[in-house]
Amino acid sequence: MNAIYVLIIGLVVAVIGYRVYAKYIDSKVIQADPKRMTPAKMYMDGVEFMPTSRNILYGYQFKSIAGAGPIIGPIIAIQWGWLPAMVWILAGTFFIGWVHDYSSAMIAMRNDGASFGGLSHRLISPRARIILLSFIYFYLLLIVGAFGAVVVNTAVALKGAPMAWLFLTIAGVLAGQMIYRWKVDIIVTTVITVVIAMAGIFLGTLAPSNQILGDALSNSRWLWAIAAFVFCYFASVLPIWRFSLPINYVAAYIVFLGLFFGIIGIFITHPEFTLPAFTSFEIPIGPIWPIMFVTIACGAVSGWHSIVCSSGTARQLESEMDARPVGAGIMFLEMMLALFALIIAGTIYSSSSEYAAALVKGPGGVFAAGVGKFLNAVGLPLDYGKSYGSVMMIVLAITIMQLVVRFMRVATAELLSDISPIFKNVHVGTLVASALGMILVITGWWQYLWVLFGGANQLMASLALMLVSAWLISEGKPAAWAMIPMFFMFVTTIAALLYTSYNLLIVKVLGGALKGEALIGNTLMGLTGIFLVIAALILAIEGFKAFRRFRTMRGQAAPSGA
């Protein structure tokens, strides 16, 4: 099959999903109101609540939700064949992904910008708040571990990436100062800061990290892990406009441009898929169901998006009318990024054995090689194109990490502030999150960490949809469009987490296959998976009680209102 057909199908799905399905839900079911005051305007504090133009939020939202997941997931999942991976990316986004992102933002906006902890207390039960916050904390820990591993592995393997990372940070901080302090025109700010970030990519090819630091330091996982969490520390403790928001805004252009010109390169070269459409039901990392559905997380549906939309985006939207273009629209763009990664993995290798040999070195190398090939088709040097691809990978991962640590800091305060007020301190919460993340990054087994993250990620999506469904029922609105995806994701992800945790704890740990640091990290991963399953089951029970309660209340209220 020619790759151009995949892109065309993706564009058709995106247009129908956004212009028809999402528009109907927005106008007829949710009934977005441009006159309703949003939390960003009601509670503007310049730290968490900040009215922001949707033109800026497009970049923030895309880079906040589109981490390395929509790239790594499809590249790994093509081992089952490109056809099932493609179907899940398209169907998952159309029926679940945008529904999840858009509704998470709307429910938070309609509840004064409340976090999921506050929403679960209000909609489900007080006990559900504690359980959900605990779930979210350990879920975020898996995210920071998985993406931290991507950052470290990419920095070690692709020596030009650290220089680009440094220049992106400088450009992002400058963008925040220019936009919010110096009041410079957004177009001028964008051009200047994106050029600075691009210069960093070029300098990375001239001065790779091994030439500056030497082989020993440039290959040190500890060095890049510490650098990543220092970066995340500043993102967590500084106001969102000064660090996280502008860095994500600038980083979005790196990804936008790479995706745009990469797709043009595909249209120029019109490559054919060389890997099989379908291989087998089960591969070494597990069966197609449920493991493929959590391996491709971001790009189809991702629970991480609900955290971003409820605790970040909902507190910045100036109007409810911006929720569909920002929440739903950007999810369809992420779908196109996932298809782009799938095309790379499926077309640049002549055989499955060649692909397998490349995958052993890491998905980042596969992606960089593909980006280099397609950017070369539009006239860029092959080496620069590969460097650009490696930078896209590290940028996609580090910009997610910084937000995760920030949200872990908030969750720490909500969860533990009753035990001791010290946990309300932003520095303490950030350092606790960073220390736990470092343990997983340094000691966790990468392959299982990614699948475990994917399972927890999709389980978070089902719990977010459970809160949305409870709110819809309480408001007397149709809920099937959120409840059906909720049931599917819940069953699938529980199965995936149990499968992965069994392999970690029974096969690897108790089977004696692991020693030393690996034993510690993977035991922690397996126990985290079991905890998440137990917490999710308890939350599901509480959620169904709430569904019943709201339906009963609506039924009792109907006669009196007649």
Question: Would you give an account of this structure?
Answer:
The chain is an all-alpha fold and 562 residues long. It has a single domain (3-551), classed as Amino acid/polyamine transporter I (Up-down Bundle). The chain is built from 23 helices and two strands. It has helices at residues 3-30, 39-42, 54-65, 69-77, 82-109, 116-123, 126-157, 161-180, 186-206, 209-213, 215-218, 221-237, 244-269, 288-295, 303-311, 323-347, 352-360, 363-376, 382-416, 426-443, 446-474, 480-509, 516-561; strands at residues 282-283, 286-287. It has a two-stranded antiparallel sheet. Helix 7 (126-157) packs across helix 23 (516-561), helix 9 packs across helix 19 and helix 12 (221-237) crosses helix 19 (382-416). The longest helix is centred in the C-terminal third of the chain and has 46 residues, at 516-561. The radius of gyration is 22 Å and the shape is globular. The termini are far apart.
Helix and strand layout, with pairings?
Blueprint: H1 3-30, H2 39-42, H3 54-65, H4 69-77, H5 82-109, H6 116-123, H7 126-157, H8 161-180, H9 186-206, H10 209-213, H11 215-218, H12 221-237, H13 244-269, E1 282-283, E2 286-287, H14 288-295, H15 303-311, H16 323-347, H17 352-360, H18 363-376, H19 382-416, H20 426-443, H21 446-474, H22 480-509, H23 516-561
Antiparallel strand pairs: 1-2
Helix pairs in contact: 1-5, 1-16, 3-13, 3-16, 4-16, 4-18, 5-15, 5-16, 5-21, 5-22, 6-7, 6-21, 7-12, 7-19, 7-20, 7-21, 7-23, 8-9, 8-13, 8-19, 9-13, 9-19, 12-19, 12-20, 13-18, 13-19, 14-21, 14-22, 15-21, 18-19, 19-20, 20-23, 21-22, 21-23, 22-23
